[in-house]
Amino acid sequence: MNRADTDIIRGVLSKEFKLSSLDDAEVVIINSCGVVEYTEKKIIRRIIELKNLGKKVVLAGCLPRIARKKVEDIVDGLVSPDNVHKICEVVKAALNGEKKVLLQRNYVDKAGLYNIKCRLNNSAIAIVSISEGCVGNCSFCITKIARGRLRSFSAEKIAEEVKDVVDQGFKEIQLTSQDTAAYGIDKQTTLAELLEKICEIDGEFRIRVGMMNPQHAIRILDDLINAFSNKKVYKFIHVPVQSGDNKVLKDMKRNHSVEDFVEVVSAFRKNFNDVLVSTDIIVGFPTESDEAFWKSYELIKNLKPDIVNITRFSPREGTLAYKLKDLPGWIKKERSRKLTNLMREIGIENNKKFLGRKFNVLITKRGKGNTFLSRMDSYRAVVLSDGKIGEFRKALIEDFRFNYLIGKVLGQS
Ligand code: SF4
User: Fold this and answer.
1) What number is the average pLDDT over the span 321-336?
2) Does the C-beta of 319 come closer than 6 Å to ligand 1?
């Protein structure tokens, strides 16, 4: 979402300003994230670095709302995510030595806003936001404060934006929001209907569906499975569970159970052979006992998701969980280490079964060194030694690591 907002900021600014390199720029816009304290500190350090270089700094993104007191005096302007379309006003004021602050809540349908997609390294990937905000109130989450309540963008405008980027030659469309499965709750429509609409667009491309919370994915599960069965939709689901213990989930105010999560994953696995399953776990939530941690560990061990994004709990001022007594850092570190080792073992075990098999892949961008990154129809990452970005090819899986496969291009898919 942050990157999709950056595409909009780039688009809006390009109408009135020359976009330039850091060296030539008079004003630098930082489109910030504030999800954990480490990130907040990193961005504040960057602001100071840029100020020391004599740059004017306009801070956009989530930090202006999350940590206003900490940043207001060290920047030349503040603009919140739902005011990105007005960023030129803030930049002009900064150039005139005035500090403009745009933080009032604003409903803006970002799907219709002019944007310039990032073409870094000739990437074939375009990010399209489908909504902003959410209907959750998770006790650990600071994002809610920055992004507010759910606003789903117009399905027509989203489809227009997807058609536009497909016409521009992008081949992988990443649909993003804080909770894609909540899409349309405020508009009497659903993510499944939106996917069907996007799949009607002509062209050979793939859709990656971003993060879905279990309670909303389960609400539309059958329709979702139907929509995902379209060839254009990657067989990939990212469903954060956060904990394997229902009491901790209650304390987190997650509004779903472990069983809800398992039901969603099982339904996708039943319908799509090689579906790639990604989830998130927070370790060290203040009320997470040893026993509760081992429940998270056992859940991952038994369900064997392919990707587990592990975060150590970070108390964020302004959230309910901030008031709870934080666990010692060494406990979080130890639990994170255990889960990371398990995740690597599962990754090896899951990827082993692809060895020697042939798959259609889409080459999406440059990889490290002289390699290319491609994606199977299950969105599994296949690193190739040659290829052309944007092409669909046939590949033979020759090797693997815990988090990606290594393939050889055989020919056209
Ligand atoms: S669903 Fe929960 S974790 Fe996700 S953005 Fe909303 S409040 Fe935060």
Assistant:
1) 98
2) no
> Under a CB-based contact definition with an 8 Å cutoff, are residues 381 and 404 in contact?
yes
pLDDT of residue 147: 96
Instruction: Kindly report, residue by residue over 112-135, the tens digit of the pLDDT.
Output: 888 887 766 678 999 999 999 999
C-alpha 386 – ligand 1 centre gap (Å): 40
C-beta of residue 219 within 8 angstroms of C-beta of residue 246: no
Given ligand 1 and candidates 2, 35, 141, 211, which is best to mutate, with the most ligand atoms within 8 Å of its CB?
Answer: 141
**CA-142 nearest atom, ligand 1:** 8
Residues 56 and 118 in one domain: no
Domain count, the chain: 3
Around Cβ 11, how many Cβ atoms within 10 Å? 17
Residue 177 Cβ inside 6 Å of ligand 1? The answer reads: no
Let me know whether 58 and 158 are in one domain. no
pLDDT tens-digit profile of 240-268?
999 999 999 999 999 999 999 999 999 99
Domain's final residue, options 78, 102, 126: 102
> Range of 83's domain?
2-102
Question: From CA 364, how far away is CA 183, in angstroms rounded?
Answer: 26
End-of-domain residue from the set 352, 371, 399: 352
**Ligand 1 atom at minimal distance to the Cα of residue 178:** 5
